[in-house]
């Protein structure tokens, strides 16, 4: 082992740095100096040539956290998303409640979603879920991106969970465990935007996924069909409930269970004739 280019990288007052998980790129931040009107900043530097890829100035910042996505495409700092794979490393800002203190950022492995845990006051704890918006189509100039309109990430859901201080994503993504570990009471909840299961392990200190991301059979669906299922999950789930309803009631599921065929017979009087019959025996008319 030897020092890169036989000299250190001198960054005055650097507070923290993080390596990209997939490339020779580091991110670091340094605060505003005590004197002079110089802002704090976050910087991406490419090694070994020490090339500055992107710098973002920050004002009135006391602290910042750096959080890379597992694929190295995106990282968060102080709730600003750096799109490293896009031209000029575009930065999107995520607006949150000013009274909320964010204590953790948790990326979905190799995915576009992330979770934030925030404290409001001393009692309320929120788990916020966001999804990174799609990049503009290649070759489109002056294209109004979704991120520019909505503020960088699409909000999915907020969960008010008092006993939660950690989000642990499955290595396969999609499913996340919300847990209250160490100083908390050991609550554990499995979520896929809807709760799948819940439990409690009192005095739990750590939580780890199986490296395979939970045993599950290979899916017969292509990547495109999987996205379609996720997009239309509520409608598909309703159809499953409808099929179960049909099975219980003995209704043919191949037809629309909301309709029923009824055969109706109608007797109609077309003509009515009153006839007088003469009784020849006694001469009395009937």
TrEMBL record:
Keywords: Cytoplasm, Initiation factor, Protein biosynthesis, RNA-binding
UniProt key word Nucleotidyltransferase: no
One of the record's GO cellular component terms: eukaryotic translation initiation factor 3 complex
Coiled coil: none
Domain Translation initiation factor beta propellor-like: 69-214
Domain of life: Eukaryota
Gene3D superfamilies according to UniProt: YVTN repeat-like/Quinoprotein amine dehydrogenase
One term of GO molecular function: translation initiation factor activity
UniProt keyword Protein biosynthesis, yes or no: yes
Short name of one Pfam family: eIF2A
Protein name: Translation initiation factor eIF-3b like protein
Source species of the chain: Physocladia obscura
